[in-house]
Automatic annotation (TrEMBL):
This protein's name: OsmC family protein
Domain of life: Bacteria
Residue ranges of the TM segments: none
InterPro entries found in the cross-reference section: KH_dom-like_a/b, OsmC/Ohr_fam, OsmC/Ohr_hydroprdx_reductase, OsmC/Ohrsf
Gene3D superfamilies assigned to the protein according to its UniProt record, in alphabetical order: 3.30.300.20
Length: 183
């Protein structure tokens, strides 16, 4: 069975190179972008991020076809991915060997949230819990140092714990036929 240790040496080189670019002033803030479109008839959402596409859908009990994870499930998937990646980064940076690594995330999503008689139930995933399981010959103190770094620097974990300002805009347009009728 292969372990993550060969990958961790590559990751360490990348971490050190990035740190060097930051110190030299070559690296700065970037704008991340994602977009989604709802597909006709099915309502399936196609997310586009860089050159990648992800399909999201709802289960059948919410007029979906179960063709992909729901948006709340993707959020949990993003957290589990971000946690594992941040563990890899800080294990590599600190020279802590890892044979295996996985993160499991769960949350409560109550369909009654916000509806009449259930106004106090959140409409969003809440009571988020994660468990990271790793196999490593490192001692407990080394794992605790990596974990502390993960908890301080994991972007999605910190976004969910601290929140952020979100600004929305709606760009409403009339269908082409309706626009020509109005003229």
């Amino acid at each position: 069975m292969t372990t993550l240790n060969d990958y961790l040496s590559q990751k360490r080189e990348a971490v050190l190179a990035r740190r060097s670019r930051i110190r030299s002033g070559e690296a700065g803030a970037i704008t991340l972008k994602a977009g989604a479109t709802a597909e006709g008839r099915s309502g399936v959402r196609r997310i586009r991020i860089r050159d990648f596409q992800v399909i999201t859908d709802s289960p059948p009990d919410f007029a979906g076809y179960n063709l992909g994870p729901s948006s709340p499930e993707l959020l949990l998937g993003a957290l589990s991915s971000c946690l594992t990646h941040t563990y890899l980064i800080h294990a590599a940076d600190q020279g802590v060997p890892l044979e295996t690594l996985e993160a499991e995330v769960s949350a409560v999503l109550d369909p009654r949230g916000g509806s009449e008689g259930h106004e106090t139930i959140p409409v969003y995933p809440h009571d988020i819990v994660y468990t990271v399981t790793l196999v490593s010959p490192a001692n407990s103190a080394e794992i605790a140092r990596v974990t502390a770094a993960v908890e301080a620097f994991c972007p999605i974990l910190n976004l969910l714990k601290r929140g952020t300002k979100v600004v929305g805009t709606v760009n409403h347009r009339q269908p082409a036929a309706a626009a020509s009728d109005a003229a």
